[in-house]
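REQUEST ID: PR-0412
SUBMITTED BY: lab tech R.K.
PRIORITY: routine
TASK: structure prediction, single protein chain
INPUT:
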Amino acid sequence: MTNLGRMGPLDGWGGVSPARRAAVRRRAGALMLFSVMS
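STATUS: complete
OUTPUT:
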C-alpha cells in the first residue's frame, strides 16, 4: 500500500511540490480502487 505512493522517479526528487505528490497519490489510490473493483 505504502509502496504505491513511492513508485516512480517523482519520489526520488527532493524538490517535488506537494501538489504534484498529492496528484501521484490520488492516481495510485484510483488505480488501487479500480483493480479492487474490477
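NOTES: The two ends are 18 Å apart (CA to CA).
REVIEWED BY: pending
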